[in-house]
């Protein structure tokens, strides 16, 4: 792996909801030497956390549905089925964000957290990373509309069987990366999780 990167200039070019930086850089080449100077814009996003609440007794998962501006051009529309997620604020841990966002978005209390993975969302254009968890939760009585209206949130909570959620991935009803990763992980590890949490 080459490893060497020279950042020649870094400039903040946008300070909106998602800040954008423009970089002039060179990087090591696999066959030796350095690349030509490249100019790249990157969304300078903070760390995010996603959590899939799983009820091992009922074999159900908690999903949230909400409007996403980036999906407006999709034929299926911009209301996506997702896992609970939020950004890490200064002074917070990934675990505390999982608990905070679950309460805000679904009125859901989490028990044990099981780390799934940490990944870069779109490394070609963004520095956003996601720390993803599966969480033990009691899904009984969950549902309704939640979120923080002052932050533009209008979130509908769904409790569905794990098999139904996996079918939603298979048929393309769920087509955002975070819930696909979380649910495919659960499909691979379901029996181990149930053995540990029942």
By CATH reckoning, the class of the largest domain would read: Alpha Beta
Major β-sheet profile: 8 strands, mixed
Percent helix, as a range, is 10-25%
Total number of β-strand segments? 11
Tell me the Rg in angstroms: 19 Å
What does this 3D model show about the protein?
With 198 residues, the protein is α+β, with helices and mostly antiparallel strands. The chain folds into 2 domains: 5-43, no CATH class; 47-197, Alpha-Beta Complex (Nucleoside Triphosphate Pyrophosphohydrolase). The protein contains 3 helices and 11 strands; from the N terminus they run βββββββαββββαα. The protein has helices at residues 94-106, 162-170, 177-197, and strands at 5-15, 19-27, 38-43, 47-55, 60-67, 79-82, 84-87, 110-120, 129-137, 144-146, 155-161. Strands 4, 5, 6, 7, 8, 9, 10 and 11 form an 8-stranded mixed sheet that branches. Strands 1-2-3 form a 3-stranded antiparallel sheet, with no helix packed on it. α2 runs antiparallel to α3. The model has no long low-confidence stretch (mean pLDDT 93).
């Amino acid at each position: 792996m080459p490893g060497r990167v020279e950042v020649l200039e870094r400039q903040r070019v946008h300070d909106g909801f998602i800040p954008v930086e423009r970089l002039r850089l060179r990087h090591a080449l696999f066959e030796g030497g350095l690349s030509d100077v490249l100019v790249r814009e990157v969304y300078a996003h903070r760390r995010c956390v996603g959590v899939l609440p799983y009820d091992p007794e009922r074999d159900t998962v908690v999903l949230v549905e909400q409007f996403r501006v980036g999906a407006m051009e999709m034929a299926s529309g911009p209301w996506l089925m997702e896992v609970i997620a939020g950004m890490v604020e200064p002074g917070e841990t990934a675990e505390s964000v999982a608990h905070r966002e679950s309460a805000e978005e679904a009125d859901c209390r989490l028990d044990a957290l099981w780390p799934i993975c940490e990944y870069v969302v779109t490394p070609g254009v963004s520095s956003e990373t996601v720390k993803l968890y599966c969480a033990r939760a009691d899904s009984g009585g969950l549902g309704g509309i939640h979120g923080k209206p002052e932050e533009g949130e209008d979130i509908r909570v769904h409790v569905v069987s794990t098999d139904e959620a996996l079918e939603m991935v298979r048929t393309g009803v769920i087509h955002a990366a975070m819930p696909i990763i979380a649910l495919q992980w659960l499909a691979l590890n379901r029996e181990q999780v149930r053995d540990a949490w029942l």
